[in-house]
Each structure stands twice: as C-alpha cells, then as structure tokens.
Amino acid sequence: MDIKDYVLELARGAREASRGLAALSTEEKNTGLEAMARALEEKIADIRSANEQDVEKGKKAGLSSALVDRLTLTEARFEKMVDGVRAIIELPDPVGEVMREWKRPNGLVISKVRVPLGVICMIYESRPNVTVDASSLCLKSGNAAILRGGKEALATNRALASVMSGALEESDVPGSAVCMIETPDRSAVDELLKLDEYIDVVIPRGGEGLIRAVVDKSRIPVIKHYRGNCHVYIDGAADLDMAKEIIVNAKCQRPGVCNAMETLLVHRGIAEKLLPDVARLLLERNVELRGCPATLKIVGEAGPARESDWREEYLDLILAVRVVEGLDEAIEHIEEYGSRHSDAIVTEDEAAAQAFLKRVDSATVFWNCSTRFSDGGEFGFGAEIGISTDKIHARGPMALEELTTYKYIVRGSGQVRS
After folding, report:
1. Distances in Å between the alpha carbon of 106 and those of 111, 112, 265, 369?
2. Which residue(s) pair with 112 in the sheet?
3. What number does CATH give the domain 230-373?
4. How far apart (Å, rounded) are the C-alpha atoms in residues 196 and 175?
C-alpha cells in the first residue's frame, strides 16, 4: 500500500470510530480509559525498552540535551503519564452539557449542547507523553485521534499506541479511536493535511518550523502556537527573594518546554541589587546569559544580546536579560517580541500587577508565580492536548472542553414558519 492509500485508510477508520465514540456514555468512556491505564502499567517493560532505543538513537543523531530530555520517558514521567489517564476519568464529561437553553414565544425550546469535534489529528515532536495525553483527552471528549509523532520517538509511540488501541478493543471501544501514523515518511503528513473530508481539526505541537509548515499546507483548520517566548518582568516593587525563586524555576526547572522563561525583564531601579544574585544562581545552573548594554555593565559574565535574541524560543539553558525603565517599557517589549503564550509579573504593587494582567495580550498572564504553571495538569484540567495562542475556538491550555464544539437542538410541537 502506498503512503496516500495508507493515510486515507487510517483517516476513514478514525471517522467511522468517531461516530461510535460520540454516542458512548461517560461510563463506557471511563471504562476504556481505565483499560488503557492498566494496559500501560502491564506493558511498562516493553514501552521503556522501546524508549531506550529512541533515546540512544537520538543521542547518536546529535539531539540537544533539552530534546533528549523531552524524549526520555523516565519512571517518574511514566507514572505521571498513567496517573494523568486516571485523572481524566475523574473529570466531568463535557459531552452533552447544556450550555444554554431557552424558550421562544412560539413555543420552540432551543438548547445549545456540547458535542465532540469529531476526528482530531495531532502532529508533534519528541515527547512521547503527548501520545497518551492526546489519546486520553480525545477519548473522554468523544473524539477519534490520529497521531503523528516525530521520527525520534517512533519506537516509543508505536509501543504506546499499540498498547492503548488493544486495550480499547477489549473494552468495547473502537480500537481505531487511536490511530498512529507509523511511517517516518514526511509525505504522510502532506497527505493527512489534505483530508478535510475526514479530519475536523489539526493540532501541531513542536517547534515553530513544524507549526508553520502545517499551517501552510493544511486544508483543515489548525489550532496552534508558533513559539513559547515567555517573559518574567521583575517590577521595582517586587519581593526580591520571591523574584529569585521564580526566575530560577521559570528558566531552569525544565528549560526544554514551551512555558519556560526565555526573556527576563528587570526594572532599572532594582537591577543593580537583583541581577548579580540572579546571575550567580543561574550561572551555577549552567545558564548562558545574553544581556542588553545595561545588563552587561552589571553582569560581567553575560554576553551581548542580539536583536534576534528578544524573539527567540531557546528551549535550552539560555536566557535573554533586559533592563527596562518600568512597567510601560516591559509591556511594550512583550508586545513587540512576545509570542502571546505566557508572561509573568513579580511585584507587591497591586496597581502595577493589575495593569500588567489587563494590558499583556497573552493566553496566560501570571502575578507572583512561575510561567511553568501554564499547563493543563497544573490548571486542574488533567492532561492537556496543547497550549493555543490562537484567539478563536481555544486559547491557553487545551483540555476536555476545548476538544468540543456545540450544536443547537430545537424541540417543537408542530410549529411552522410563517
């Protein structure tokens, strides 16, 4: 079978599965999710072995340490992944929720009701947990999932998808509710993006190059974020000890993810007091600093930042640092260079905080906490399928509600329009 026929057959299977999924009860979907969680636990040795193969290949291929980290399925991450499946079981089922209902003067009763999107195509890189998160969220929201992971995680993703699909078959949920594109051939993605007859939405997760390529080629609506260029602004009224902890966490806790801080903005009034300590803490953690001229005068170890650094999503232990005159300049910088993903202010001045929260046009804005909390699990959504910087349909961490749309149900008693 050639690539075109292979992809078409999978998409048709997913479309057929989506019709059955839309009619499942919450109990039936939860039974399928529990079957998936148990099967993953039972097959952990096989899955970890496949992941070790991918990690070894990635190292030999010269993947960066951050990308190797994203690829690695540690025991703790595996447990968290399975816990995420079970957490979704406990979440309310959005499908069938009556969002609004009203009665017209002619007696018609109109209901606005949540329904699944249908078939969701996920195209993503590196992190194998996306395979499980996406499958679980799609099942609970009544959608079929077509998954196309990166070639660097091919063995892991095959193992995960095979385990989950088999578990669903045994629980009377269509196994084709989870479809994995198992070929690394890039033409498979090109063929997928033509199938607007079978696929309702595409969600790419990965670098900006991947996402722009998907948007450029797709006939299907795309929910996206291009970059995670996240900022933390330390205001002149900040608690400096709090600021140091937030800075280190936002940059270093896991630098290879989209909600890690990439640019630090510091009020000029506290820069000389704060930056030497911050630089020491970051340099101890092997962070490379790239600063504006004012930063270079304070931190001798920093290198000069270029114009391109202010727009960069490093996904690595690199940080751009700029000293600003105050709140207005910080917001102007974020507006000019930011990606509308996640941005934070650290301050004890409530008026400054409220101004930042209102004026910064990002999917998530934070006050006195790390940007690393921009995450479906941390928001209490269970797992997430991605973070959207779009404004239409979904914005920010996407979980169950964001994987639904709605339809109108109209009940009458013989009314005709005059």
Report:
1. 15, 18, 59, 52
2. 100, 408
3. 3.40.309.10
4. 22
Show the tokens assigned to 186. 């890039």
Alpha carbon distance 57, 123 (integer Å): 21
pLDDT digits (tens, 9 = 90+) for 119-167: 999 999 878 989 999 999 999 999 999 999 999 999 999 999 999 999 9
| Average pLDDT of the residues in 283-287 | 97
Give the start-to-end residue ranges of the domains of the chain: 3-224+390-411, 230-373
The answer to whether domain 3-224+390-411 and domain 230-373 are alike in fold is: no
For the chain, the three-class secondary structure string (H helix, E strand, C coil) is CCHHHHHHHHHHHHHHHHHHHHCCCHHHHHHHHHHHHHHHHHCHHHHHHHHHHHHHHHHHCCCCHHHHHHHCCCHHHHHHHHHHHHHHHHCCCCCCCEEEEEECCCCCEEEEEEEECCEEEEEECCCCHHHHHHHHHHHHCCCEEEEECCHHHHHHHHHHHHHHHHHHHHCCCCHHHEEECCCCCCHHHHHHCCCCCCCCEEEEECCHHHHHHHHHHCCCCECCCCCCCEEEEECCCCCHHHHHHHHHHHHHCCCCCCCCEEEEEEEHHHHHHHHHHHHHHHHHCCCEEEECHHHHHHCCCCEECCHHHHHCCCCCCEEEEEEECCHHHHHHHHHHHCCCCEEEEECCCHHHHHHHHHHCCCCEEEECCCHHHCCCCCCCCCCCCEEECCCCCCCEEECCHHHEEEEEEEECCCCCCC
What span, in angstroms and rounded, lies between the C-alpha atoms of 115 and 178? Answer: 19
Task: Report the alpha-carbon distance of residue 65 to residue 10 in Å, rounded.
Answer: 34
Taking residue 227's Cβ as centre, other Cβ atoms within 10 Å add up to 19
What is the per-residue pLDDT across 185-240, written as a single tens digit (0 to 9) for each? 999 999 999 999 999 999 998 888 899 999 999 999 999 988 899 999 999 999 99
Domain at 3-224+390-411: CATH code: 3.40.605.10
Structure tokens at 164: 């989950």
